[in-house]
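note to self — DONT lose this again. spent like an hour looking for the file last time. sequence + predicted structure for the chain T wanted, 621 res
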Amino acid sequence: MTPPRTRRRTGAQGAVPAHSLPRRGAVRRAQAITTYGVGSLVAVDHESFVVSGLDEAERSWNGDESPRIYERRLARLLDVDYFRLPPASEDSSRDGLRVRRFPLMHSCPECAELQPHRLFNPPAGRSVCGTCEVDLVPSRFVVACEAGHLDEFPYWQWVHRSPERGSTTAGGCGGSLRLRSSGRTSSLRSILVSCTCDRAPEVSMEGSFRKSALKDLGLKCRGTRPWLGTSAPAQECGLPLRTLQRGSSSVWQPVLKSALSIPPWSHGRADPLAEHWDALRQFESRDHVAIYLKGAFRGGECPVSLDEVMTLLDAEREEDPDLENAPTFDHRYGALRTKEYERLRSGNEESEQSREEQFVCETPLGDQAVLGPLGVTGPMLVKKLREVRALKAFTRLVDAESTTDTKEMSLSTSPLRWLPAMEVHGEGVFLRLDENRLGTWETAPAVAARVERMRSAHQRVLEERADDSGRAALSPATPRMVLLHTVAHVLINEWSLESGYPAASLRERLYAADDMAGMLIYTATSDSAGSLGGLVAQGEPEVLDRTMRSALRRAAWCSSDPLCMEADTSGLSWTNLAACHDCVMLPETSCEHNNILLDRALLVGTPEDPSLGFFGTVLEH
């Protein structure tokens, strides 16, 4: 990561050119997608920066430092041609991930001045007060709106507000701001801001986080996008502003989309027909496709055989949802998941594939009948898999999955034909639950009533996060989904003891719908270390039967019982029932749903009603 060049003081003795200064911080490549993506704030030592937009940092996102990766199915969904890995290089001459200083407002702990960074006249390459020679402190507070804009906290207006109406009287008072801490408490009341003009009393930051605090000052969003620099001038937005801590998770929330590479697109190579697919999809017959290819590659041979082209066209048409009903993005993303589920069920034998194939899924050799009493069916050994995770956009204040009308902020000023992404390789185990037994269980009144409690609590959370309850997304909680989710968690905990992988390196991928009842538990890393065979070995029927029974016995008892099992609600925002960190919760990186919608009672039942659990009869034998 490379901060922008630091200003030089004119005539400074012994000044060092800014470009030669060691002004670098380090983040992992994956964090440039999940934690420190475009538009996010990152702390480097005692300084704070915002990660630059894609077009502002185009040089660093090109070339060997940021290679291209391909995943046709995900690229179609996101309407791009390819993806790029975040720039990473240990060579000090390379740019790395470009950033800009933000917030610009800083304070000096020694002289208590509060002003833009440049006015402190810091020496080149350092963030210190030019007078006191102590490290400057970036503003703890920023403001943002739901549209994704980000701006400085309006300290001047906060100090010069009218006590009666809250309107600002700041202007040409000629004073300068001061910031100090009384040290009496750790609350906002102890952070005091004043102006030397003596026209306004010293005020604390208490109350600045109220929803209407800035609205009462007559302030609205100016539409600033500091991560895009001067290429994106501010345009009046008008939405209400909210005060946030600089390090708050609400300042930046990524919109991530992922896909498994499955046949016929699982070779991971560049697509030689990328610019021809829109035209090719118009043709139904093989002869018309052949005529088009002959004209498109006039004077040369098409790099893809006609048979392969037809196979790829058929695969794309199968994955397309019903176009007559104007499918939304969520419907198209659901169709992508459905196709993965079908391929995981059907498999892809290793002996029939080339070495370039990145999806190998085989039926285990053991007798699957031993899994019948458990209600588990169709285990598959995923010996090779590749997943591409792309950063589509980001949001502020509002979780992208909590509303149907999310204001996603683009990563660049102009549309680009690529997005940042990570590719990971690994292995896993896919298994399904018996549809007949599942159908009987999920219609039981006691099961439906228990899940409804979680769904109602989750729906209330979604409505609160959406601010407009009419735009809130629908909770995905169903008996089938909660059951699959909880089974995946107890299996990950069990396999972390058996397979040699820590729980944080295992992930779940759930397939829960009316026509799907499966889960993929896999490990994936950015190198080949994710395919060591330890997890695949757990998918053999005899081993899986033993592991499942052991996991269910562990799930039947929690060190927090009876409180955990008898609690009416638990977990984040009370969206769990019998689930806590002592029994089924996982590291956040392992869970698709942020450790919500979990209930081990749906697995093993309760002491009063063992039949509530899908696997309740298993523990009786």
